[in-house]
Amino acid sequence: MPHDVRTPYWVKHAVFYQVFPDRFARSGQVALQPSGLEPWDTPPTVHGYKGGDLYGVVDRLDHLQDLGVTAIYLNPVFASGSNHRYHTHDYFTVDPMLGGNEALRALLDAAHARGMKLILDGVFNHASRGFLPFHDLLENGPASPYRDWFHVHGFPLGAYGEGDGTARYDAWWSLPALPKLNTDTPQVREYLLRVAEHWLRFGADGWRLDVPNEIDDDAFWREFRSRCRAVNPEAYLVGEIWEDATRWLQGDQFDAVMNYPITKAILGFAAATIDDDEVAKCGYKVLAHQTAEGFAVAVRAELDRHPRAIVEAQLNLLGSHDTPRVARVVGGDAAAVHLAALLQFTLPGAPCVYYGDEIGLDGGHDPACREAMPWGRTGTWDAARLATFRDLIALRHAHPALRTGDLEVTYAHHGVVAYRRRLGEDDLLVVANQRDEEMHARVPVAGLAAGVRTPLFGTAAVDVADGTVHVRVPGRAGVVVGL
Q1: Is the confidence at residue 242, as pLDDT, over 80?
Q2: Which of 205, 210, 333, 427 is catalytic?
Q3: 292-305 and 260-270 helices cross at what angle (nearest 10)?
Q4: Per-residue confidence at 275, pLDDT binned at 50, 70, 90?
Q5: Angle between the 218-231 and 186-202 helix axes, to the nearest 10 degrees?
Q6: What is the mean pLDDT of residues 344-369?
């Protein structure tokens, strides 16, 4: 049975925005920026750097605030030899290319001054060949005092083509650049726990945890939670787990996960066309089309799987740095993106916007989904997309029912799904139509006064009569109606 489940109060009311630091914004304030940066507006590459930095994020907080964002999720910021910084060299130092510790201090202060939270990306399953303990192991072999910090099976290690080039240590997905840390070693556990505590004391509001299921040790994550909560009782701990995460969501480990099951249900319902080739390249593997009935069942299953406090804290997303962009998944169909966004912002859980999705960026799997934000080309931005995201975020902020209200699926037939979100007097009906043609949904809702209703979002003819809400929803569109 789940423990007494408590998640941070602020999360259920938050709208997140994911920033990939190297690709978001250059500030011009990093004095010793390397000279070999790629031009900002050229297509991204696997290994190239664009030179975005954390002062650049500070410079663009107006955009986030105007959008309605109240929390930022930063991809890794610690010293690393990769543009994505999942190859950690030093867990206690922000990468100099990003502006160093001083730039993170500036970003935290600026975000907090605007009432925004900020969570960091914790890569604790594996480090890099440049991580000092592993470098010591490379230099000193069996004599290294750090041998038990990793899963070593023999020497030479084979990390840089030594011997026959075979890596004789465990690495993430067998990539030699990412040696797996041995968290069975007490010193490794303590080191990582102190990293977590340090940056919370520095001011971070939580951790997004990279592949935490690959540290297959519930006791470690229970201690991680306990130590983090002792520093900040409202620290948000969200894991990257793509499938059923029930094991980790019992109230004693994580507050939430990146909610890919809901992502897949939303995209499966909203998409008329799915780019199967792009989908197959990422963790989705397969993305199945969903009928209205199937979508309702999938959503209900996820809501019933976890305690309510967990459900309301789940990180709901339409894509991330690990997936093709939502626009690419749905074959460039703008209506599908707008329909997916409607569902994302009206279901329980904290919605998260991947940078650039709100302006219509359309890239395939890595590296194409990690392009530079086109600040200098605002004329290319999708104004309708931006307006839709802004309006949906404002609607969510305006209506507590969309954040912490009950959810009841009231209709799921003929390509149309309707669900009611209700919290006291705040009572809303969300209706989404996946078909090309206008559909007339007759949604039973007893006890309502008869009369015409004007949608709070979207365009539709809405009338209440005889305990039924009659909604004529345009094709490939959705509405939110105040009851």
Answers
A1: yes
A2: 210
A3: 170
A4: very high
A5: 30
A6: 98
Q: How far apart are CA 178 and CA 80, in angstroms?
A: 11
Task: Estimate the crossing angle of helix 334-346 against helix 383-398, to 10 degrees.
Answer: 10
Size of the chain, expressed as the number of residues it contains: 483
Residue from 444, 442, 435 nearest 461 by CA:
442
Which residues are CB-contacts of 275 (< 8 A; sequence separation ≥ 6)? 324, 328, 329, 330, 331, 364
For this structure, is 240 an active site residue? yes
Which residue shows structure tokens 């996960």? 257
Answer whether 315's CB lies under 8 Å from 121's CB.
no
Beta strands across the sheet bearing 439-444: 439-444, 468-473, 461-465, 451-453
Query: Under 8 Å CB-to-CB from 445, ≥6 apart: which residues?
Result: 410, 420, 429, 464, 467, 468, 469, 483
Write out pLDDT tens, residues 201-215: 999 999 999 999 999
For residue 378, how many other CB atoms are within 10 A of its CB? 10
Q: Specify the pLDDT at position 4.
A: 81
Q: Which of 59, 95, 240, 255 is catalytic?
A: 240
Q: Which residues pair with 257 in a beta bridge?
A: 239
Decide if pLDDT at 1 tops 70.
Answer: no
Give the dihedral of Cα atoms 330, 335, 340, 346; nearest 10 deg: 180
The candidate with the shortest Cα–Cα distance to 49, out of 72, 21, 12, 18, is 21
pLDDT value at residue 85 = 98
At 429-476, the pLDDT tens digits run 999 999 999 999 999 998 899 999 999 999 999 999 999 999 999 999
- Global pTM? 0.97
